[in-house]
Each structure stands twice: as structure tokens, then as C-alpha cells.
Amino acid sequence: MATLSGVDGKGLVVTGGGGGLGSVMAAEFCRLGARVVVCGRTRESLEETVRRIDDELGEGRAFAVTADVRDPESVSAMVDRATELLGDVDGLVNNASGLFPVDAEKLTPNGFDAVVRIVLHGTWHCTSELARRWLAAGRGGAVVNVLTPYAWTGAPGIVHNASAKGGVLAMTRTLGAEWAGRGVRVNAVAPGWMPVGGTDFLAGDEEARRRLVDAIPAGRLLRAEETARAAAYLLSDDATYVAGEVLTIDGGHHLSKGLYEFLDELPGRR
Known about the structure:
The chain is an alpha/beta fold and 270 residues long. It has a single domain, classed as 3-Layer(aba) Sandwich (Rossmann fold), CATH 3.40.50. Helices cover 44% and strands 14% of the residues. The chain contains 8 helices and 7 strands; from the N terminus they run βαβαβαβαβααβααβ. The chain has helices at 20-31, 43-57, 72-86, 109-137, 150-153, 159-179, 206-215, 224-235, and strands spanning 11-15, 35-40, 62-66, 91-94, 141-146, 184-191, 246-249. A 7-stranded parallel beta sheet has the order 3-2-1-4-5-6-7, with helices on both faces. Helix 1 (20-31) links the parallel strand 1 and strand 2. Helix 1 packs parallel to helix 2, helix 1 crosses helix 8 (224-235) and helix 4 (109-137) runs parallel beside helix 6. It is globular. The model has no long low-confidence stretch (mean pLDDT 91).
């Protein structure tokens, strides 16, 4: 029976793979035996992700392909190149995102649009490009979208990202139901707070971090590798009967009364 090594031998694409959670997921998938294309707009950061994986596991596991997920033509070209490098693309992780804390009344139209285009439009462009190819070929594939618990709870100070992630939540459930009978699985992970990449907004504020941890029933922050393994499960053959679901990985934080207590202290807010 397949286990987490069910991604062994699979060809995967990870968007936003040049740093943060994306680079951690790419490395973990490679450790589990997958071959991974990381994509993003900045070649230097993508190549750094690949270099770290090469140094640990040897060459030929990871590949860098530049793409702008906001642009359907760029996405199509990326999938063409990923297919050349991997042979077949078996799974996609929509991780590319944009987030900066800001009071809603101070958020510009351009700021709102920029985040929605990356998160919501970008997820759709990548998902639809690969799914159309899988469906036309009569083969299956798996999509994992990276959400967050505030996709359904909302959260002050991040209306742009929460709105976009809420759209991706609806997309996940809709496409999960629409394509499940045709072998294309669409699911999501919703990680809690991780001290990784540019979203570690509490870096350097140990008091705020302590109070955040106190509000999490599990009593600690999430490790990025835990999110990667949850995504690996949804990409694996163990999850062929899972469709339109969201696997929440936040230590019970979204269930606690302390969810919003620290948000007023994020940089960019009052």
C-alpha cells in the first residue's frame, strides 16, 4: 500500500518556489522521491532553491522555471517546459502568494488587485492549464492549493489576502467536486503560523510571539516541513478518494478564542 512515498517518482510543480514555504515543500517532496519544478518570477531565488536541493540530494531532482502566474501565456510556457523536464507533470502545488499587513482603509486599489491577481487568478491559471491537459489526455492529476484558516474566518489587517484565499477556497471545493469523477483531484492545505520566509511578521518581537504561541492550543508554531508532508499526502496515491477538502494544520488555532488578539501588532497596522 502507498504511504507518503506515494509521491516517489512523481513529477510536481510548485509555484512560489523561490523561498519560504515553497522552497521547503520542494525540498521535502524531493526527499520523498519526487522530481520538482519550482517556478516564480525571479530566476536567482529559484536557482538558489535548486542549488540547496542539489547539494543535499544530488542533481536531477529539482529544476527552476521562471513564470508569472498572473499571465496565462507565461503559465502555459512554464507547463510546456516542466513537461519537458519531468516527462509528465503529475501534481501541482499553488503556493504563490502576496501578503502585507495593512488597515483596510489604507489599502490602495493597486495593492488589493496585486494580491488578488497572484493568489486567486494565479491559482486559476495554473490549475486550469494543467487540468485541461490532464483531462484531454484522459489521465489523472492532483492539485493542492495553499490556503490559510482565515480563508473562512476572515482576519483584520489582511483583507486583500483573506479575500483572495476565500476565493481559492471556493475554487477548491467547486473543482474538487466537478473533476473528481474524471481523475483530477483538487484539495488544499491550510497551514497556521510558520516562522518561514517573508510572512514571519513577528520576527524580533519575542513578546508578541510568546502570546501568539500561548493562543495556539498545540503550544507551538508550525514547522514548514509539516505542511510539506501534509501536501505530499494529498498529492499521493493515498488520497485518491479525497476531493475538495481542506486539511487544516494550525494546532487548533482557528478554534481558539485568541485567534485575532495579536493582529493589531503586525507591522503596517495601527
